Q: What sequence folds into this?
């Protein structure tokens, strides 16, 4: 038995876990392709404004369509002239028309969206709109496959600040949190009169439309001196560690006097019931391979092919730009960051996503990976719009989509002369056939597989000479040797794969 048993799980190359050696080949990040229909949800209703933010997208298997929860509002800007402000004299966005309005959209293909007349909320004397009951503007939404209670199939959270002195004192006295904000942050909070407790309320829903508050609310309450889950946060059921998880920016920057050295990071908190939460632990921090002004503003994670796939938003302090990068983990705690370029590129200067991109968790639908996101045309606390000294300028944000063919995040690329070659570590598998996800140009590419024993000896009948070459792009090719794909005689035995890549790319392999 080999030390690694892959069973029938797809093996990707986002990390180098299964790679023994590469010869004339290299791992390459493949950026997602933006939809030509972006922004995919145009602002075309009177209740919509200049800022559309996607909160959650889910494919309903029973109804055979996508559902999108999003919020919309109109933003304007004003110029801050207070020299003591921590906002560096920037123009700041303000809500022009009250709070954000939650909405629901549906789609058959995930690209073309409809805004159904739900008849739930009155606007301008009519209920013919797609507005949702606010329920305190639930927007941190996810569908929970673990909870067996149909009334709690969807979970959503609301984050707000409570400045009531009694609440602040109660939370401060009850807290066992041992770290505090840096003194200059506390002084600034007091000066502005916003020393508020950070509150998270939990809601349940059978359909993501009608919400019932949890009787244990608030499920998270943290004091002004040490806010928990204070930044953008994503909640999920983690099927690998069998727990609920929250990924957040654990306010490390607010506990530091040196923002350049100790800025925003990514933390993870866990809960058995979504009510009682551990303190978040920092899991991803910038390192020497990141730009000096890089911090981590946001991250979203999902279980993908038995491992953790993450989209980590890098925040560049000098430009205000925010863009997602690819991270990968096999235990949910230790993350490999081999690729620092964006997985979704920022848009052109005039685009809605020119300066900021905030992605949702990847959705696998058919043979595609769908990456929904909302983008902003102005950077975080700066950017083209913020350069204007006068107020009233609109800040635009809209919803976009980027896609990848399934598994095609990272490839092993081989050339022509000489051809590339990948050798895996030894492993055992379950199944009878080897499948490969490969690409290249027809009549130019060739992929062959040689099977080795754990000591690298070639197994007779499975040499390069026996291998039938794969010469076409395909998400699911079955490897054959002399016309036969049957590997049942090797099932459960330790083997290695040596894969020849002639002007071809390999993305994943698996056994059925």
A:
């Amino acid at each position: 038995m080999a030390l690694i048993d892959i069973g029938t799980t797809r093996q990707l190359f986002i990390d180098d876990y299964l790679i023994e050696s590469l010869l004339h080949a290299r791992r390459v990040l493949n950026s997602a392709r933006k939809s030509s229909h972006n922004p995919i949800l145009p602002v075309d209703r009177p209740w919509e404004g200049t800022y559309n933010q996607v909160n959650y997208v889910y494919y309903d298997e029973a109804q055979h369509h996508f559902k999108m929860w999003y919020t919309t509002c109109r933003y304007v800007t004003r110029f801050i002239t207070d020299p003591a402000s921590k906002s560096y004299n920037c123009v700041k966005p303000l809500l022009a028309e009250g709070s954000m309005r939650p909405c629901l959209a549906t789609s058959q293909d995930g690209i073309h969206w409809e805004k159904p007349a739900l008849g739930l909320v009155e606007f301008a004397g009519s209920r013919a709109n797609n507005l949702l009951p606010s329920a305190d503007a639930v927007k941190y939404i996810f569908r929970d496959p673990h909870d067996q209670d149909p009334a709690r199939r969807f979970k959503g959270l609301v984050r707000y600040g409570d400045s009531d002195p009694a609440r602040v004192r109660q939370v401060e006295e009850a807290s066992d949190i041992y770290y505090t904000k840096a003194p200059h942050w506390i002084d600034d909070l007091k000066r502005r009169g916003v020393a508020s407790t950070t509150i998270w309320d939990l809601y349940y829903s059978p359909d993501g439309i009608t919400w019932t508050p949890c009787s244990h609310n608030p499920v998270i309450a943290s004091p002004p001196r040490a806010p928990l889950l204070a930044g953008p946060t994503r909640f999920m059921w983690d099927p690998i560690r069998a727990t609920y998880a929250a990924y957040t920016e654990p306010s490390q920057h607010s506990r530091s006097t040196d923002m350049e050295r100790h800025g925003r990071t990514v933390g993870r908190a866990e809960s058995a019931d979504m009510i009682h939460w551990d303190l978040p632990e920092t899991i991803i921090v910038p390192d020497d391979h990141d730009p000096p002004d890089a911090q981590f503003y946001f991250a979203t994670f999902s279980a993908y092919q038995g491992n953790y796939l993450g989209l980590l938003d890098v925040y560049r302090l000098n430009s205000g730009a925010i863009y997602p990068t690819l991270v990968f983990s096999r235990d949910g705690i230790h993350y490999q960051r081999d690729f620092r370029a964006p997985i979704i590129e920022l848009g052109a200067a005039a685009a809605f996503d020119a300066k900021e991109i905030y992605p949702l968790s990847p959705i696998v639908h058919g043979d595609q990976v769908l990456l929904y996101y909302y983008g902003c045309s102005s950077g975080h606390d700066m950017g083209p719009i913020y350069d204007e000294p006068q107020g009233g300028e609109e800040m635009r944000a809209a919803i976009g989509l980027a896609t990848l063919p399934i598994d095609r995040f990272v490839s092993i690329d081989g050339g022509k002369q000489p051809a590339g070659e990948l050798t895996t570590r030894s492993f055992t598998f379950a199944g009878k056939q080897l499948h490969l996800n490969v690409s290249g140009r027809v009549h130019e590419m060739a992929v062959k597989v040689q099977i080795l024993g754990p000591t690298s000896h070639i197994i007779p009948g499975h040499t390069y000479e026996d291998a039938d070459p794969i010469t076409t792009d395909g998400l699911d090719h079955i490897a054959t040797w002399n016309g036969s794909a049957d590997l049942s005689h090797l099932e459960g035995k330790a083997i290695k794969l040596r894969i020849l890549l002639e002007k071809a790319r390999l993305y994943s392999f698996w056994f059925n």
